[in-house]
Amino acid sequence: MFVKVLCFVVLLKCVVAVGESQNQATTRQRYSGYNVNNVNQNDYISKIFGTVTGLQSSSHDINQKLDEIDNKVSRIDSETRNGFASLKNVVGHETPSATLNHVKREIEAMRLDLMSTTHKRQADASSSEPDCSEKLTAIATLLTSTRSAIAGIQRDFMSFSTNMSQLLALSSDIHKRQHLLPTKQYLNNVVHATTSPHQRIPPVYGILNNPPRLGSSCFHISQLSSSVTGDIEIQRIQVPTIPEPFFVLCDHETQDGGWTVVQQRIDGTINFNRNWLEYKNGFGNIAGEFFIGLDKLHAMTTSALCELLIVMEDFENNTRYAKYSAFAIAGEREDYAMNLLGGYDGTAGDSLSFSASYKFSTFDNDNDGWVEGNCAQAHTGAWWFNACEMSNLNGQYLGGNEGTGKISANNQFQGIYWNTFNGPNYSLKSVKMMIRPVAERTNFYSNLD
Ligand SMILES: [Ca+2]
Q: Which residues have C-beta under 5 Å from ligand 1, the single-atom ion?
């Protein structure tokens, strides 16, 4: 609008100027000579009119352009306002300078806060140093006293250990001497004897509270005492599962000794063709020919793991042996079955593994593996018969006729035989079955190491 007014003023001035110029020209004509002719005046008027017309036309063009300019300015003004409005929204309805000032104020506040915090921390640190030092000193003192207390406890413990060892040794000694103490009964007897002039004071051996402990095997007994007097001797042993002690023949000579003999044949003086009950309980003479009995054999071979040694001799004075690393038999309820037989070692050959796991049979108790017959009856022996056997060490003593062990064909399998040593047509001169505890012996020799 302002531009329009300006243009109008300019146009008006132009018209006025044209008018003045026309008046001045008229005045100059009037004062220069009143004689100017009318033709020239008309030409001037026509020219002026043409000029005014041209000016009017130009003014119109100018007006149009001014309108265009005015429109453009209006559009720019509108766009600028919109731009400002958008910018205002972006900066949060504040002007950039206001935002900047706000940010500056915030930064300043943060700086002041930071300085304040730093000063405070420095002050705290300087004030807390003495406390830490005191605490460290207290902890060091506590550690020293704790270490001292531990050392004291260690000394006490060592002393306690020494005392305990001495106490145990004393206790063991007392235990060893305990059986020497007189019993109440013995003291009563002594008192009674002293008050009665006709009573004799009982002998000293009567005071024994417990009899001397017996070994559980020949090997065990040889380790317990120095009572072993010879290579072969009779000893009394006590097997845990049998209430009463019993005599056994010990072999301290063969293969490092310590063997308990469970069966022996030497001359045929004892009949071995016996029934179940006799084999169960044992028979014969411990000092000569005998079978120790299946119950005892079961007790001995199950109270400790035993090895088995069989030594045999023929009439030509050839001696052979068969050794098995383990041997045990079951109880009567399982017919004394040979339920453990270890590996073989020896010179006679293995003629017993054939019987392993088989039950014991006598002529009156057939437990063998021969379904149709009775091995004990057919071979006149008592053994752990399969169907029937490779050995029959409880067979008849048939050798010795004419100084030989060879027997007639009729008596095959009937004699004392070992299939891999002279075979079933030969009856051996002597045989000895022996057992020895394995674990006890192993422990004994490992203790010596
Ligand atoms: Ca049978």
A: 366, 368, 370
